[in-house]
Design brief:
Layout lengths: L4 E3 L1 H13 L6 E8 L5 E8 L6 E6 L2 E6 L3 H4 L2 E8 L2 E7 L3 E5 L4 E4 L10
Parallel strand pairs: 1-6, 2-5
Antiparallel strand pairs: 2-3, 3-9, 4-5, 6-7, 8-9
Amino acid sequence: MTDVVIITEAAAFQIKDMMKEQEEENAYLRVAVNGGGCSGLSYGMGFEHEISEDDNVLEQHGLTFLVKKEDAPILNGTTIDYKQSLMGGGFTIDNPNAIAACGCGSSFRTATKAGTPEEC
């Protein structure tokens, strides 16, 4: 299976650093799609301790992360990166399936999944 989501080395380093700070070194990173946001869907990332049979388990740069099988088609080809600038740092998400986005790229929709848009 090809990787549904690509996590860059910079993003993996930042995530592992956050896991250490929050004492979550034994956790997995969950990458998810949730309903909501001004375009209908939004990205979610968090730490989780259980792997479900509905999960794709991926590993890149020493980081193990989970993507629900139902979210895989929506996230297929997505790259998660971490950029540092003079204004601070933050994660960037580049999803080639998104046909509309708002909220600095944190909310989106695809041609096949509109989600549940909310007022901004």
